[in-house]
Structures are given as C-alpha cells and as structure tokens.
From TrEMBL:
Residues 106-245 form the C2 domain. It comes from the Eukaryota. Pfam families: C2 (PF00168). This is C2 domain-containing protein. It comes from Trichogramma kaykai. Signal peptide: none annotated. Transmembrane segments: none annotated.
Length: 251
C-alpha cells in the first residue's frame, strides 16, 4: 500500500512522500512538513491524503491505482493546531474515514495552460506534465523492460477540431516514461486562428505512445461536460493558469 500526503492550495496538490506496507494495517511514523506561503492562512488550507495500491517492480506492467482519499479542512483543527497567538500546539491524533474513488479505472490527468491573444489571433497551449497515466498491455513491451520495469516513449498531440475533423495539429517532443507514469514536457504550442473560428472548435489533447498509439485523451470546448468553463475563460481572455484535465479512454 502507498499513500501520499499534500496540502491543497486552490486546485494544486503537492505530493511529498509515500510508504509501503504488506498488510491491511498502515503504520507510519514519518512526519511531513509543508511550507505554507506567508500570504496564506492555515485555516484556508486542506490536507489531502491519497491511498494507492502498490505494484511490485518485478511485475511486468506497473500502475499505481488510487484506492481512496480523505480531505481534511485545517480550519476544523485550528484550536488543536495553533493557539491564539498562532503558535504550534501539541500533536493531534485521530481517525478519519477514507472515501473510495468513483472511477474504477483512471487514465490519469494532463496539466495544461491555455491563453488566446486577440490582437495576434493566436492560441497558445502550454503542455506542462501528466500524472497517473494508464498503460495498456502490449506484446512488444518485453523489448523495453529494464530492471526498473518497462519504459514508454510518450508525447502529447493537440488537435483543433471542426465538425469532428482536425484542421490544425501539433505535438510535443517525446518523453521516456517509466513506472512513475508522470512525464514532464513544459512545451509551448502556438496555433494561429481568429477568435470566431476558435469559439466553434474543439481542442483535443491526446496522450500518445510512439509510434502513433493513442492511450488517453480529453476535449475542451463550449460543449464539453467538465471543461466548458475552462473554454469560456479562454475565449474571454482571462489570465492563464495551469489546469489539470482528467483523461478518458480513447474512442
């Protein structure tokens, strides 16, 4: 079993460490220290703990699946955490129920940042990183297995779709992805198009494995169920911020 712990600053999660256990009782004596920005109040933060299953490195396909999580608003612990002068109090111990993840199979998430420059009529997409990618078995994986497990060559392809057909397409460089399943790109892709055309288009993000196997994808458009607000912010010229986009099974 693996668990990670992090403080949530708005929608950002920082994972600091994980531990292993061979039975159903997780015992950990480690301490996790988080630096809180000077402009943030402790009672505005939430502690997140995520539980994963552990796949041995000796197994052919390595994938860490999320089993459950808990969110603890620190405002509920303020009397126990600090005194009236914001000084630390004694250690607090308690039990909390771990909630199950709704998705039985997660295809991971992709972090992107998007802006539209109306004067230049240019869409700028920054592909930042991915996490918890799901790799399907492949007969050719035996050729890529090292002592630490299989290694995959991964890239992101961005398509701008109109009526279901791609009329603009670009892709990132290839990254070697091992059992961590969290490649980093930090690459910028630019698309020249008028705002009216972008408003009626769909931006498609595909996680691809070389040479051209699509492993997961997601869509951002005015009609997308979960990403419509992100698309509206893009069209309005709102300040860009990094967003985690949930990935789905390719169709």
């Amino acid at each position: 079993m693996i668990f990670s712990s992090g403080l949530l600053l708005k929608s950002r999660k920082d994972t600091y460490a994980f531990n292993y256990s061979e039975d159903n009782k997780i015992e950990c004596s480690d301490y996790f220290v988080f630096q809180v920005p000077a402009n943030r109040r402790i009672d505005d933060l939430t502690l997140e703990i995520v539980l994963y299953d552990h796949v041995s490195k000796q197994q052919k396909y390595l994938q860490q699946h999320k089993l459950g999580y808990l969110h603890l608003p620190l405002a509920q612990l303020m009397p126990e955490l600090v005194d009236d002068e914001q000084q630390p109090q004694s250690v607090t111990q308690f039990f909390m129920r771990c909630l199950p993840f709704e998705d039985a199979k997660s295809y991971g998430e992709l972090m992107v940042s998007m802006t539209y420059q109306s004067q230049a009529e240019r869409l700028t997409v920054v592909i930042i990183r991915a996490r918890d990618l799901f790799f399907t078995p492949d007969d050719d994986d035996d050729d890529d297995v090292s002592k630490d497990g299989p290694t995959y060559e991964i890239y992101v392809q961005v398509n701008v779709l109109r009526d279901g057909k791609s009329f603009k397409r670009k892709k990132t460089g290839v990254r070697h992805c091992d059992h961590v399943n969290s490649p980093v790109w930090s690459e910028t892709l630019n698309f020249d198009m008028p705002l009216g055309l972008l408003a009626t288009s769909t931006i498609e993000f595909s996680i691809c494995r070389t040479p051209s196997q699509i492993m997961a994808c997601c869509h951002v458009s005015a009609n997308s169920h979960s990403n419509a607000q992100i698309f509206q912010n893009l069209l309005s010229g709102a300040t860009s911020s990094a967003q985690w986009l949930p990935l789905n099974e390719p169709k």
